[in-house]
């Protein structure tokens, strides 16, 4: 978690693997920020950050940070925290880096996969995951959550939001699309608490949800390492 510089840093390491980008197709990435703004995702990020309660000195990691909206909001809301984002998509990371530079926010951006995090054991206080888990292939979700637990210090917490939920059907077009891709088939929402418990987390709870007509339900979770 070292090497933070103003405007961000992108470390490139590890082998190339297939992954599902934020907009599913690389050429659609420029639409990611306008579309998510339209869908009110900023409000979801604010709620997740409120839940996380990042404090001065905290080391915060966002897995699947994409174009950096949550990551930058975290740094802006708590400048005395160390904020790191990891994502396999170099184009999205480059966008995040440009935004950090424009806003004068010092964050670290690394290329990597959630199931193979390039960080030491017990090195993070707070992990954030926002609409990332349904992008991970079904058989890599538990290894990814085990990695999150490994890098969290004992007592550190994961704060996660994703599409779906225990009492939610895939009731909107975004939700239906999100759960239909050869790389990541299978619904993620309702299974998240069990997944987190299997990965060794304690005090797993669903902390709330936010239903959007035509879009689907976003459900928030908290779990302790
Ligand atoms: C829908 S975007 C969410 C971006 C951001 N967290 C947000 O809330 O706006 C999902 C992100 O997960 C990333 N991703 C896909 N597979 C991943 C993996 N195995 N590990 C980490 N991130 C992954 C994608 O590249 C994409 O940036």
Q: How would you describe the overall organization of this protein?
A:
The protein contains seven helices and nine strands. With 225 residues, the protein is of the alpha/beta class. The chain has one domain: Vaccinia Virus protein VP39 (Rossmann fold), CATH 3.40.50. Strands 1, 2, 3, 4, 5, 6, 7, 8 and 9 form a nine-stranded mixed beta sheet that branches. Strand 3, helix 3 and strand 4 form a beta-alpha-beta unit. Helix 2 packs across helix 3. The protein is globular and about 40 Å long. S-adenosylmethionine binds next to helix 3. The site of S-adenosylmethionine has 22 residues, from helix 3.
Short structural description:
The protein is α/β, with parallel strands linked by helices.
The tally of beta strands, per DSSP, is 9
Tally of helical segments? 7
Shape: globular
Number of domains: 1
Helix content: 25-40%
Q: Structural class per helix/strand content?
A: alpha/beta
Q: What is the CATH architecture annotation?
A: 3-Layer(aba) Sandwich
The poorly predicted ranges are: 2-9
Average pLDDT taken over every residue: 87
DSSP strand content: 25-35%
Q: Could you tell me the CATH topology label.
A: Rossmann fold
Which features does this protein show?
globular, 9-stranded mixed sheet, 225 residues, disordered N terminus, 27% strand, 7 helices, alpha/beta, binds S-adenosylmethionine, Rossmann fold
């Amino acid at each position: 978690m070292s090497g933070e510089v103003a405007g961000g840093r992108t470390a490139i390491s590890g082998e190339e693997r297939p992954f599902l980008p934020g907009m599913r197709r690389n050429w659609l990435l420029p639409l990611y920020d306008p579309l998510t703004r339209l869908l009110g995702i900023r409000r979801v990020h604010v709620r997740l950050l409120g839940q996380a309660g990042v404090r001065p000195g905290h080391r915060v990691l966002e897995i699947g940070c994409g174009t950096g909206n949550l990551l930058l909001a975290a740094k802006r809301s708590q400048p005395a925290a160390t904020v790191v984002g990891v994502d396999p998509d170099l184009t999205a990371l480059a966008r995040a880096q440009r935004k950090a530079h424009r806003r004068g926010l010092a964050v670290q951006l690394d290329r990597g996969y959630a199931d193979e995090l390039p960080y030491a054991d017990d090195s993070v206080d707070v992990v954030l995951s926002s609409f990332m888990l349904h992008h991970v292939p079904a058989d890599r979700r538990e290894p990814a959550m085990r990695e999150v637990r490994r890098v969290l210090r004992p007592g550190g917490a994961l704060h996660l939001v994703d599409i779906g939920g225990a009492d939610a059907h895939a009731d909107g077009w975004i939700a239906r699309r999100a759960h239909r891709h050869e790389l990541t088939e299978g619904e993620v929402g309702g299974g998240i608490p069990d997944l987190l418990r299997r990965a060794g987390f304690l005090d797993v709870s669903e902390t709330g949800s936010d239903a959007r007509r035509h879009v689907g339900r976003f459900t928030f979770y908290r779990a302790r390492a």
